[in-house]
Every structure is written in C-alpha cells, then in structure tokens.
Amino acid sequence: MRKIKFFKDPISDIKTWLNDMSDIGYRLVGVRNFIYDFEKSDKKYYYETQFIGYDPTKENNEYIDMLNQSGKKVYRAPINQGNVNLIKFRLRPLAKGDAKFANTFGGYNKEILIVESEKEEELFTDYSDISIQYKKNRDSYLQGLVVFAIFLIISMLDILNIHIIAIVIMSIIFIWLLYLTLKNHQNYIKYNKLSKISER
C-alpha cells in the first residue's frame, strides 16, 4: 500500500502516524519524500524519529550503521516535504561540519531519521540528550523562520512587487514555523532544566 502524506510538524508527527499505521497492521517498507510504502504485517513494529540534519555526514553514517547492527531498520525522510528538485543545496549555518553545506549527495532531504524496532524503546532517555535533540529541532525550524521573515519584509516593502495572495501564504507559513520554533524551544528549556536537576 502506498500513501502520500504531509505533516505539520514532520519531526514529531511522522512517528505518531507510523505507530498508528502499525497498530492497524501496516509496516513501513519505503520512504520517498512525502510518499510512504507499507506492507501488511501481523507483527507490531515501533517507530521513533530523530532530526539529524545538523550533524556531519560521517557521524550520521556511523550512527545509522550502529542502529542497523543492533537489529533496527532505518529510513530517512525530508523535513522539506514538498521539495522534489533533483539537485539541491542549502546553507545551514547552525549545523556542524559538512552539514553546513547540505546537498543532494549529503544530508539534504534526508534530515529525519525513522528508526523501526521490534520492541518499544526510545532513542533518548537521558534528559540532556532529549534537550539537545529539541535544540536541534528548534534551530532547524528557526532557520526556515528567518528565511520567511526576510521574504515577508521584502514583500511588504513591495521591492519584488509580489501579489497579496503570495504574501498571505508566506505569512501563514511564517506563523506555522514560529509556532514550531517556540514549541521546540519550550521543550528544550524544560528538558535542559530537568537535566541540570538530575545532575545534582
């Protein structure tokens, strides 16, 4: 079975949806952008997601190898769900190493790691690790927020002579990215505080 699916908050919503699909007897077998392939399964599988778009390619490959060796199945999905260009490049100033210059041959459109397990287990159990993950999520959405803020300002100054409908669409995307940035920032603060408490 093939499903086309878009998510408001892909980093966290993909996990919920895949676990719901598993509950009704479908196992993930492939991901291509916003297209998800499933097969019927009598066995229950568990899914976790993690944002890895800001980590260096070598570090990500080593991490994926480790997950595969531990018996987990791994897929990669894009954070930019509608981007289907063949050759892609993006500057990510907040990322580490070669991830600062994401491209088709590296980590671009493969930012979300989907991990399938046969038993329910979280990828992160330490508060410090959870807070770091939320910080990476926040920074990812923040970058998109800044880009849309610049486009909005330019549009409102009428420099590019953009139609009002385009400005409305950009405003909606800006508000959505602002919400995701703030949500992840609140979680980062929460787990950062918990990690400091647990260290005492």
Account of the 3D structure:
With about 200 residues, the protein is an alpha+beta fold. The protein contains 4 helices and 8 strands, in the order βαβββαββββαα. It has a 3-stranded antiparallel β-sheet with strand order 1-3-2, with helices on one face. It has a 3-stranded antiparallel β-sheet with strand order 4-8-5, sandwiched between helices. About 25% of the residues are buried.
Topology:
Elements: E1 2-4, H1 10-23, E2 26-32, E3 35-40, E4 46-51, H2 57-69, E5 73-77, E6 89-91, E7 101-103, E8 112-117, H3 127-156, H4 164-199
Helix pairs in contact: 3-4
Brief synopsis:
The chain has 200 residues and is an alpha+beta fold. It is built from four helices and eight strands.
Descriptive keywords:
46% helix; three-stranded antiparallel sheet; 4 helices; 200 residues; alpha+beta; globular; 8 strands
- Categorize the overall geometry: globular
| Gap from first CA to last CA | 50 Å
Helix content: 40-55%
Radius of gyration: 18 Å
What does the average pLDDT come to?
84
